[in-house]
Specification:
globular, iron-sulfur cluster binding, single chain, 16 helices, 365 residues, alpha+beta, iron-sulfur, 4-stranded antiparallel sheet
Length: 365
Amino acid sequence: MNDSERLWNRLHVPVERGSAQRPHPTVEAARRRATAEPVALDADWLRELCLREGLDDVGFVAVSTPGLEEERDYVLEALPGTRSLIGFCLRTSRDNLQSRSISAANRDVATTQELGHEAARRICLELQRHGVRALYPAAGFPAEIHRFPNRSWVVSHKLVAVAAGLGRMGLHRNVIHPRFGTFITLGTILLDREITAYSQPVASNPCIDCGLCVTTCPVGAIHADGGFDFDACYTHNNHHELSNFAGWVEEVVDSADAADYRRRVTPTETLAIWQSLSFEPQFRAGYCVAVCPAGSDVLGRYLDDPQGHARDVVQPLMRKPEYVYVDPDSAAAEHVRKRFPHKTIRPARQVTVPEPEIDPRPERQ
């Protein structure tokens, strides 16, 4: 082997280094190109792009929009230089979400969220082609779990959606689109450019205050006076996630043997945890969404036949036998005993997650 072969073997590719006298050709070509000053994105062009890629509605807001102050540092950490946000939504299948079959509802939510991710990715790639930096956070999970329980999301899709004119928050704490109602999933795209025209919030709340979400909620988390019990909702609806999942792990560890484990966790619950781990996190009850008649595409059927809506959608969910997870001796447990005695109360073993030790706050920009 000669000296040249020893220096440049087949696993070592020589690099063409530039100098002041002889610049690297790629660098020299890039410097010759005119660097135009970034211009604001045309709102009509951007909206057309978003709809063409499969989104059902979009709105645009500046990152400095009032009401988004708590989002700013997290957004700028994710994409330094963010100037604008695209709030978007995709329609879900109403019949899937209104079904008594929770697997049908979960399947459609997961599918719609992934369609949103795919559309957002295509939009970001097209914007990238035009020299625009763009980033799309996850619609749900995965999240910045190292920041749990403080805040594990990059940006609040609900707050952006409301600011971007995609709807208003209903009594059930879901965003209600003026046309599609609650049958939507939400997402956000971060941009490092201004947009020529920004959206305004919708003038009136599409929520018609029918109270069906209050009636149907199995844990009584939604109150007619506008109150909301987040812990009750989270404990039941997200039972296989986060601190509830950590509680299940501790049940496994604390069990003396298989028989003891079965006394703590039923075989059905073990299978439900397997399903949530193997596929996507499984929500236990999206009943507040299922029964909501708000939105122009949804409301007509309810107004034409409210008794039919109650018979076909509301009552089957209320009659459904199921496990309801609550903290023992809580208001939620009492609510189940009084309103839904045919449903089975299961105590939730949540783990108290301490304040995060690493990176709990975003780096200030």
